[in-house]
Design brief:
alpha+beta, 8-stranded antiparallel β-sheet
């Protein structure tokens, strides 16, 4: 997650702030303009449209309709199509690590709408794995089809970032050129804040690594942080986190504590943070170096302490 939207000087233009609640979390929109251009009602309306498309918590959403056992295919809207299409791209570039068909596994391990009273055994995990794999989905235009009955999808690993992009586009459509949008820790900034200064973001760090805290300066970029110290629970001393492997069906158990991803879009930052969480630290850095306009900062556990790795371009965003 990301905290602390830095701001301190007097503005050349008035600033307008909209705070609210949506998609199971909070949002914060701040923009600079000569007069108020958008309202909370408009922001909430945008969120409602996206929820109607991709919310697993709404039985009437498009994704919930697609996930029904008796549903073989549906016609999806532009929002869901954009997210599914990009999911295929990220899945390919990550060699299958990013996979939106993991919904049955997410539910099996108690990270969906329903909690669990005991952990699944190997036989149960194996029985669910047969429904996992991006190759089991077929997308053509706005037509989304299951290649195998029983497939269910979960877009939570990328849809929230996409929502931030949609809100950013909405601001720009209203002639707003300087803004920062945050939803559940996913952030996108455009232009500048007061007196031409870049927006500043402070990174939330896992316990034990605070000695290397720093702030980032962003202009025309998106950022997100993901960590295994959030959305997790303990089972007999073993931490179970919400990042589930599509290959073996089990929650990830590796040395990565958190990743911070900077990308041109929040959708990419959101999608790739799942990938970097799954990879060994050095492999994550190597992947970032191959990707266009994606930078990553990785904190990982080493013995009793933490270490860190940066992709080559990440350091240029660090405030000196």
């Amino acid at each position: 997650m990301i905290l602390s939207l830095g701001c301190c000087a007097y503005a050349q233009q008035p600033s307008f702030v909209i705070d609210g609640y949506g998609q199971g979390t909070t949002y914060h929109v701040k923009y600079y303009a000569d007069q108020q251009q958008v309202s909370a009602v408009q922001i909430d309306s945008v969120l409602a449209v996206i929820d109607g498309s991709m919310s697993l918590y709404s039985e009437s959403s498009l994704i919930s309709k697609f996930n029904r056992i008796d549903q073989d295919a549906i016609t999806i809207d532009e929002h869901m199509r954009n997210v599914i299409k990009r999911s295929f791209t990220i899945s390919k570039k990550s060699k299958g690590i990013f996979d939106v068909t993991v919904q049955p596994l997410v539910a099996l391990w108690g990270f969906g709408p329903q909690r669990i009273s005991k952990l699944p055994d190997q036989r149960t995990v194996d029985s669910v794995l047969q429904y996992v794999g991006m190759e089991k989905l077929y997308l053509r235009g706005k037509y989304l089809k299951k290649r195998k009955p029983g497939i269910r999808i979960d877009l939570n690993g990328i849809a929230q970032g996409y929502t931030v992009d949609v809100l950013a586009d909405f601001l720009e459509a209203n002639n707003i050129k300087n803004y920062i949008v945050e939803l559940g820790g996913e952030i996108r900034a455009k232009g500048h804040k007061e007196l031409g200064a870049p927006f500043e973001i402070a990174i939330e760090r896992p316990i034990g690594s605070e000695q290397n805290t720093f702030r980032l300066q962003l202009t025309d970029r998106a950022i997100t942080t993901s960590g295994n110290y959030r959305q997790s629970f303990d089972n007999d001393g073993v931490k179970i986190n919400h990042h589930i492997s599509p290959f073996n069906g089990y929650p990830l158990q590796n040395s990565v504590a958190s990743v911070t991803v900077i990308a041109r879009t929040a959708m990419d930052a959101d999608g790739y943070d799942n990938v970097f969480m799954a990879l060994p630290p050095q492999q994550g850095i190597e992947l970032a170096e191959r990707l266009k306009e994606v930078e990553v900062y990785i904190i990982y556990k080493d013995g009793q302490g933490y270490k860190e790795l940066f992709s080559k371009g990440f350091s240029r965003y660090i405030k000196s």
